Amino acid sequence: MKNISSVGVKVTNGIHELILDISHSSYYNRDIAPTTLADRKWGTKDIAVLWISMSACIPTYMLASSLIAEGMNWWQAVLTIFLGNSIVLVPMLLNAHAGTKYGIPFPVYCRPSFGILGANIPALLRAFVACGWFGIQSWIGGWAIYKILTVYFPHWDQMPNIFWGINGPQLACFLFFWSINMLVIYKGIESIRVLLNIKAPLLIVLGLLLLGWAYGKAGGFGPMLSQPSAFVPGGAKAGQFWFFFFPALTAMIGFWATLSLNIPDFTRYAYSQRNQVVGQALGLPTTMGLYSFIGVAVTSATLVIYGEAIWDPVILLTKFKNPMVLVVAMFSLCLATLATNIAANVVSPANDFAHLWPKKISFQTGGLITGIIGILIQPWKLIADPSGYIFKWLVAYSSLLGAVGGVLIADYFFIRRTVLDLPGLYQKKGPYWYRSGFNPWAVLALLLGILPCLPGFLGAVSLAKVSSFWSQLYHYAWFISFGVSFVIYAVLMNTPSLSPSPLVARGEPSGGVGGRRK
Q: What is the pLDDT of residue 88?
């Protein structure tokens, strides 16, 4: 094992460990501090399990439904999902590098580019989106409990909706599932890893069992798997495939666009870069493709079994009258949604809110803030319209987060060549202080990356009438926002006369654009 030491930092096989005591800093607390070698307990299996656990969930199962409803056949829908997740894997792996190398969470990873205080801008953009997703997933988990219990208490469905559009049992099931999420967060990151390791194999096995049941019961996979695409010659939408494919692909990228940014929150616990790269490559696109296929195949079989397409697995499971099946189903669905929700939608905002005021807000407090916002947004209203949920919600926030990713990757790989001043990440007036804690060029690049997508977004959500040019441009929102912010940031930061920091302007080695030591 090769050990290299520098000022305040110990490097072991490429892993940087902070040995300087900086606990006095106002921008430091135990939860956002760099991980030590002793903290790193995630191997290739754990990283793969992370993605298997997050991907094997109800939204993934239902993800192909809107694509098929618009005219794709089953393999076009599954291929679009697989391709979108293969594309988002690239920024995922790039952003994950800093987490593994320096042991830093996402908001601290934002500091070299946006500044110590400016990092709160991308962190909060990520956090508020996660709060929305947390609320949605918590509602889905509570809804699963509610629907299965109504098999035994059917009168619940006749109860009046007196709590913000939902009835008392629905609210109680939602809050019950919400409280379980909060309990796991209170227990900390290691309990999350254990939960993921339990869920991953269980959900894959149950998904395959459901697939086997559907095939046997229907005598095959039903008509949907032999149904031609509406986009082929002779179809209702012949010649329109590419006009639908790109917004659909962007939406699939948007499904995990948030995690492509805050993946350092997890890879900071990885043993090595190889562990995080191999684990993510094995876990993400494969599980998304498999579970979306299971959703399509089982739904296709329900056309034969029940005479209707049942996309929602919760509704499907209520068709089983065996009490043992219902109990196992309820437990499995709750576990599936719980693990996905905590890993994807609570860990990041908990760190992000802690970053706002490190000396006062802990990881657990940040998780509680996330949970409260998740209730206040009334998530049952967000998912009332499935088409809006996917093609407005997903694409809208992916256009924002593409711009954040462009700045982060340009800064870390193109400007700094993966070299960061680890103690400097926590120092006021240090190398990443820029102008009063903000890097104006990062903020400008972020805004300009979002700008081309804004007219199309306003048109998509019916807030303004825009020309077809802006609507078509919006279909490529993630790619455009990423590319524009990447190029603008790289140009501005590579122009010495435009230096955003006095330290950079003087060419000082600790705090120069690359943060290098001589």
A: 93
